[in-house]
Amino acid sequence: xxxxxxxxxxxxxxxxxxxxxxxxxxxxxxxxxxxxxxxxxxxxxxxxxxxxxxxxxxxxxxxxxxxxxxxxxxxxxxxxxxxxxxxxxxxxxxxxxxxxxxxxxxxxxxxxxxxxxxxxxxxxxxxxxxxxxxxxxxxxxxxxxxxxxxxxxxxxxxxxxxxxxxxxxxxxxxxxxxxxxxxxxxxxxxxxxxxxxxxxxxxxxxxxxxxxxxxxxxxxxxxxxxxxxxxxxxxxxxxxxxxxxxxxxxxxxxxxxxxxxxxxxxxxxxxxxxxxxxxxxxxxxxxxxxxxxxxxxxxxxxxxxxxxxxxxxxxxxxxxxxxxxxxxxxxxxxxxxxxxxxxxxxxxxxxxxxxxxxxxxxxxxxxxxxxxxxxxxxxxxxxxxxx
Length: 387
Ligand SMILES: Cc1cc2nc3c(=O)[nH]c(=O)nc-3n(C[C@H](O)[C@H](O)[C@H](O)COP(=O)(O)O)c2cc1C
What we know:
By secondary structure, this protein is α/β, with parallel strands linked by helices. 32% of the residues lie in helices and 25% in strands. The protein has two domains: 2-175, Flavin prenyltransferase-like (Rossmann fold, 3-Layer(aba) Sandwich), CATH 3.40.50; 183-386, CoaB-like (Rossmann fold, 3-Layer(aba) Sandwich), CATH 3.40.50. It has helices at 16-25, 44-51, 68-75, 86-93, 100-106, 120-123, 126-137, 163-175, 208-218, 247-258, 301-304, 323-333, 371-386, and strands spanning 2-7, 29-34, 56-57, 78-84, 112-116, 141-142, 146-149, 155-159, 183-188, 193-194, 200-201, 223-228, 240-243, 263-266, 273-275, 295-297, 313-319, 338-342, 351-358, 363-370. The strands form five sheets. It has an eight-stranded mixed β-sheet, sandwiched between helices. A six-stranded parallel β-sheet has the order 3-2-1-4-5-6, sandwiched between helices. Strands 7-8 form a two-stranded antiparallel sheet. The longest helix has 16 residues, at 371-386. It binds flavin mononucleotide.
């Protein structure tokens, strides 16, 4: 992607060199413009070193050989304003074009994404909120702001969104937020069924596929509700995250949310069995020469969700070395629109082998494919159901 990056003067501008680096690492090109005031918080020299090109500041574009704002409009796929201060949001909403940043925004043809950053008193100012609403109604996109500790030491909404999440939103803006307004319930991670207060019956699922799907959902602009069991991967703290441990907790959390969502993606590794009895405390080694544990079947979550299906899109997963035989049966039995069948070798791995089967009979094979790419394939099919 070719990204025009506009920096305005919020203190969070000091984080932007990290953003430029991260964009470069993903293979994107950036060209940078800054307001005069933004140079108090980030230096032109750092930006030049990281982006590979000298940025244009304030009104210095009058010295350029071409109309830089028009050139950038032709060059860029996406315009990202980060950090977007109170001033620039007000200026753009009021049709003001008085320096390189506001003029570039006024003449940009592609999608524009604002990543606001300011104290929560400024963010909650009704004048600003009106401007944000107005800009949204005109097709401008927003990434964040996040809540948490602010520069002043106060807590509230107004922090610059995490760099990683801004980049996901840049992708969504580039694609035109195709899942905007859709709520997606994504369930992943593994369940744990307690044997006593110390030991659990679980499996080796890492949550890598789930994390890749979470990112891909946001990269398509959907509202993401994550119900997450135990996992090895990092937290993806966007929209709503609910943590669960047992199969029953997972089922209850899904039932609480399912009515309100458009799409369910069930990528969790749910235990098929649980100890029939949970002992209190710790079963003592000395008291058992041989310990027999009896297991009973857990509830099949997807099967119990039948009554909620209606016109929602249901995507399920299967893990087996016999996927050719089980995939179609599961697709029908579990009322799915699509099933992602993986071989057991996919477990814990960053790559996956298997196929996607849709209820229309479409079959897409993937062989030793990075889970990020499998997630892209899955979301592409989901988008086909939505549109
Ligand atoms: C130390 C300091 C920190 C500031 N931090 C912010 C901020 O986080 N967000 C914001 O909207 N404005 C902030 N401002 C106010 C803007 O810098 C001010 O509105 C400025 O006129 C905006 O200019 P520009 O939009 O041309 O960059 C801050 C100002 C100062 C002096």
